[in-house]
């Protein structure tokens, strides 16, 4: 097979799909390849929270930019994407966490993000199933949720309308220095450039890339409409030690339009298998029941796991790889890939075409990792 | 022993014929045995009601033998997960249960196979087995006009049972060709008891049309079914009815075997001559290994019970009897093989997944079960794909992927194992409660 494309995107998850939509829209002859079905990897496993975050200015810039792109895209999204601007409710358990609410409020307000501070009484009326005695919380009004597999499919359909091609069940073995790819069957497809959007599997195609698999668990409930109204997340991290290397859990729950709820979250390094880890599942659920005492009586339908693509500085890797201008990267989105997919696609296309980027791209550049080789 | 944690040498899942037979052998061989079943009765689906009012001598015999065997019954207990080797998590009205085993025998039975056709979701359309159960529990069928359709020997038995309860059986439509069904009748000559049973049923159903090579293509009605359209492939006609009992044979319950890592062969749990599965110390008997009926299940169950309790000679002595029932099982599969026309009964707007309202037209857009699940959510609802997954296998040939816990929908608190809970309740800090959340900065969406 010898066919020339301007760009080959490896990976049909939400990040690859967003890159394809932007590249095709810009007129590039685009091919998307995936070894499985559309969004069969991390995209299928995640929650689908569109959220602004503030760990660093760079994280804020990319999440805020991406959320704006989602809001702009919203009128075009088909119903099955289930975009729901339910908002995020950050829950403060005590006074210490309430101080964090105030810090966040100041940070977001300064930067034009709509937030509301909730006191103990407000939070009870906002979410009556939360346990009594919580100190308060912060509502990030315009945060939203989507159903990621259909969102990725929508972005790929958009790219196809601009001439992109999609081939699933095709495994790429090598990203070639001339911009093409070599497939598992030994054949090559030539292209001006290739992009690896393979998330936690990206080090296989780019040896030395500092991306690690970070396992997570989720539980989905039966339909219990109205049990929670926001995506609710705890602010309890203040009390935790630096647990970057350790297994950890945090309370995080999301209402779906179906009335179902997704319950998370867990994080584990060095857990490459996909089996449900019973001890960590129990910790995660106990944490959730601490916040929502009556949750334990509700019916669960399914538990599953997935892997995030974690980087050392918690920022994604977007841009030309250090080997040269023909092999590009769009990976390392950890738990924020659904939000930041749109920003990633736009940044990647702007950089490829030499257009001015709307936010500085350098914090996400692959060049920031010394010794990373492609 | 607490009410939450149970330890047995041999645990049997399922109290139907295979499970009862396995438990009897193992307990009689001196092992500490428990049978776990999600129903409140002994006998499984096929012998439902026999515990209270024994009518089938064989059922009565085994239920009594089980009671004398010394085996423990954990009834109303649904196994939901196998979190680690040697442990089952289960749910009971009084709370979660943790059941520890050295050897495990899976006798999880089968469920009815439904295939979608236009109108199949109308109220008043039930599986033949399901309708029979409801009727036996007092659901009124007297005077109701019932069409029985689908496939398999169960159709006749159900028609017979409903007729006894006062229903008017309009007709019985068996999709298999007459020649095949007659051929199956001939194989019954090798099993005189079965032949006599069939003859008695047929006698009682004299006057009820039993048509072979006939299947339903459409059901119509308003708030409930009013009529069903049947066809023999040449011509179609409608029959007015109040109820349609329709099922296309049985699909094995392989979810728990899969969760335990048992390999499947052509959709059934693979076992060796000793009824051992590919998973260490896990055995399987009855319908999950092949749809063969109660007699086949009883022999397989006995073999599994003997093997698991290290009485291999006794197990081996039953191999020949099992061979006879395996011939019967093969004859059953040949006679009632589903015709190709059944794959195309549904139209584009016929729902295939009733939980998530996914139509055939929508499912057709996808390349496989996983793709369809991710994009349309078919099979992701409360039935966990038990109905539409089995249908999709027939219609599209799509294979099910590995199963995810819980095996049955379960309360969230039931997923938290007993040991963990008890230590937390005892005031001891469990590993979980020590750990506050980590950096939410590494947040997930």
Properties at a glance:
heterodimer, A: 374 residues, alpha/beta, FAD/NAD(P)-binding domain, D-Amino Acid Oxidase, Chain A, domain 2, 8-stranded mixed sheet, 9 helices, 26% strand, B: 445 residues, 7-stranded mixed sheet, 5-stranded parallel sheet, 22 strands, 24% strand, globular
The chain-level structural class of chain A is alpha/beta
| Rg calc of chain B | 23 Å
**Order of H and E elements of chain A:** EHEHEHEHEHEEHEEEEHEEEEHEEEH
What is the CATH superfamily label of the largest domain in chain A? FAD/NAD(P)-binding domain
How confident is the prediction overall: mean pLDDT of chain A? 94
The CATH architecture category of the largest domain in chain B equals: 3-Layer(bba) Sandwich
Shape of chain A: globular
Task: Provide structural commentary.
The complex is a heterodimer of chains A (374) and B (445). With 374 residues, chain A is of the alpha/beta class. Chain A has two domains: 4-47 and 148-211 and 313-368, FAD/NAD(P)-binding domain (3-Layer(bba) Sandwich); 88-141 and 213-308, D-Amino Acid Oxidase, Chain A, domain 2, CATH 3.30.9. Chain A has nine helices and 18 strands. In chain A, the strands form three sheets. In chain A, strands 1, 2, 8, 9, 10, 11, 17 and 18 form an eight-stranded mixed beta sheet that branches. In chain A, strand 14 (248-255) and strand 15 form a beta hairpin. The two termini of chain A are 24 Å apart. Chain B has 445 residues and is of the alpha/beta class. Chain B folds into three domains: 5-111 and 252-334, FAD/NAD(P)-binding domain; 114-248, FAD/NAD(P)-binding domain, CATH 3.50.50.60; 346-396, no CATH class. Chain B has helices at 17-28, 57-69, 128-136, 154-164, 178-187, 192-204, 255-259, 293-308, 312-316, 319-335, 360-363, 369-376, 386-396, 418-425, 431-434, and strands at 5-13, 33-36, 72-74, 78-84, 87-92, 95-106, 110-112, 125-126, 145-151, 168-174, 210-212, 215-221, 225-231, 236-240, 243-248, 250-252, 264-265, 268-269, 282-284, 351-353, 358-359, 410-411. In chain B, strands 1, 2, 3, 4, 5, 6 and 19 form a seven-stranded mixed beta sheet that branches. In chain B, strands 8-15-9-10-11 form a five-stranded parallel beta sheet. In chain B, a hairpin with a 4-residue loop joins strand 20 (351-353) and strand 21 (358-359). In chain B, helix 1 (17-28) packs parallel to helix 2, helix 3 (128-136) packs parallel to helix 4 (154-164) and helix 8 runs antiparallel to helix 10 (319-335). The two termini of chain B are 43 Å apart. At the A-B interface, strand 3, helix 6, strand 12, strand 14 and strand 15 of A face strand 4, helix 12, strand 22 and helix 15 of B. Strand 16 (299-310) of chain A pairs antiparallel with strand 22 (410-411) of chain B, so a sheet runs across the interface.
């Amino acid at each position: 097979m010898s066919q020339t494309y301007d760009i080959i995107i490896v990976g049909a998850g939400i990040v690859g799909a967003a890159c394809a939509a932007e590249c095709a829209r810009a007129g590039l002859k685009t091919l998307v390849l995936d070894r499985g079905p559309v969004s069969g990897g991390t995209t299928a496993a995640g929650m689908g929270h569109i959220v602004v975050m503030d760990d660093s200015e760079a994280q804020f810039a990319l999440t805020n930019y991406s959320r704006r792109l989602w809001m702009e895209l919203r009128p075009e999204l088909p119903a099955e994407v289930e975009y729901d601007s339910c908002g995020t409710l950050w829950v403060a358990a005590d006074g210490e966490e309430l101080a964090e609410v105030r810090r966040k409020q100041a940070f977001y307000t300064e930067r034009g993000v709509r937030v509301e501070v909730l006191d103990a009484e407000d939070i009870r009326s906002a979410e009556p199933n939360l346990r009594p005695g919580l100190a308060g919380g912060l509502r990030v009004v315009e945060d939203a949720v989507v159903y990621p597999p259909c969102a990725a499919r929508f972005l790929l359909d958009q790219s196809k309308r601009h001439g992109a091609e999609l081939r699933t069940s095709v495994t790429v073995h090598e990203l070639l220095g001339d911009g093409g790819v070599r497939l598992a069957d030994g054949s090559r497809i030539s292209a001006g450039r290739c992009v690896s959007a393979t998330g936690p599997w990206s080090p296989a195609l780019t040896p030395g890339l500092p991306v690690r698999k970070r396992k997570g668990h989720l539980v989905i409930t039966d339909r219990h409409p109205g049990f929670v109204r926001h995506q609710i997340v705890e602010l309890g991290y203040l009390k935790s030690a630096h647990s970057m290397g350790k297994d950890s859990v945090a309370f995080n729950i999301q209402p779906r339009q179906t009335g179902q709820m997704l319950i998370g979250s867990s994080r584990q390094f060095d857990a490459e298998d996909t089996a449900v880890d019973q001890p960590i599942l129990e910790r995660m659920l106990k944490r959730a029941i601490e916040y929502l005492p009556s949750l334990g009586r509700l019916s669960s339908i399914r538990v599953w796991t997935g892997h995030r693509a974690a980087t050392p500085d918690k920022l994604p890797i977007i841009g030309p790889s250090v080997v040269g201008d023909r092999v590009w990267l769009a990976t390392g989105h950890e738990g924020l890939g659904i939000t930041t997919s749109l920003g990633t696609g736009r940044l990647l296309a702007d950089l490829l075409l030499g257009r001015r980027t709307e936010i500085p791209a350098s914090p996400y550049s692959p060049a920031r990792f010394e010794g990373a080789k492609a | 022993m607490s009410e939450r944690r149970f330890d047995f040498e041999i645990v049997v899942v399922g109290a139907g014929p295979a499970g009862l037979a396995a438990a009897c052998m193992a307990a009689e061989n001196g092992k500490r045995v428990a049978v776990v079943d999600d129903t409140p009765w002994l006998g499984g689906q096929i012998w439902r009601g026999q515990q209270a009012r024994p009518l089938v001598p064989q059922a009565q015999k085994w239920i009594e033998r089980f009671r004398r065997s010394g085996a423990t019954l954990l009834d109303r207990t649904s196994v939901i997960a196998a979190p680690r080797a040697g442990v089952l998590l289960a749910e009971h009205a009084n709370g979660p249960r943790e059941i520890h085993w050295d050897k495990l025998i899976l006798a999880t039975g089968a469920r009815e196979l439904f295939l979608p056709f236009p109108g199949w979701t109308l109220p008043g359309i039930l599986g033949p087995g399901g309708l029979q159960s409801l009727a036996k529990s007092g659901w009124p069928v007297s005077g109701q006009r019932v069409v029985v359709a689908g496939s398999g020997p169960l159709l006749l038995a159900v028609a017979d049972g409903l007729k006894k309860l006062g229903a008017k059986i309009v007709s019985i439509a068996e999709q298999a060709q007459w020649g095949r069904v007659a051929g199956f009748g001939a194989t019954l000559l090798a099993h005189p008891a079965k032949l006599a049973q069939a003859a008695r049923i047929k006698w009682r159903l004299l006057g009820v049309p039993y048509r072979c090579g006939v299947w339903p293509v459409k059901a119509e009605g308003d708030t409930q079914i009013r009529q069903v359209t049947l066809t023999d492939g040449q011509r179609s006609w409608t029959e007015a009815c109040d109820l349609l009992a329709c099922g296309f044979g049985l699909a094995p319950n392989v979810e728990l075997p899969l969760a335990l890592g048992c390999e499947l062969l052509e959709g059934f749990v693979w076992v060796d001559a000793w009824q051992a599965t590919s998973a260490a110390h896990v055995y399987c008997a009855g319908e999950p290994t092949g749809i063969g009926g109660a007699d086949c299940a009883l022999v397989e169950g006995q073999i599994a019970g003997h093997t698991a309790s290290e009485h291999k000679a006794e197990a081996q002595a039953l191999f020949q009897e099992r061979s006879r029932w395996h011939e019967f099982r093969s004859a059953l599969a040949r006679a009632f093989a589903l015709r190709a026309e059944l794959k195309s009964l549904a139209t584009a707007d016929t729902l295939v997944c009733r939980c998530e309202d996914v139509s055939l037209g929508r499912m057709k857009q996808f390349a496989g079960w996983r793709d369809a699940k991710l994009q349309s959510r078919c099979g992701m609802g409360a039935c966990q794909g038990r109905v539409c997954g089995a249908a999709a296998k027939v219609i599209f040939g799509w294979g099910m992927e590995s199963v995810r816990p819980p095996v049955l929908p379960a309360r969230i608190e039931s997923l938290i194992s007993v040991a963990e809970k008890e230590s937390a309740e005892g005031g001891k800090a469990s590993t979980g409660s020590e750990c506050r959340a980590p950096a939410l900065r590494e947040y997930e969406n």
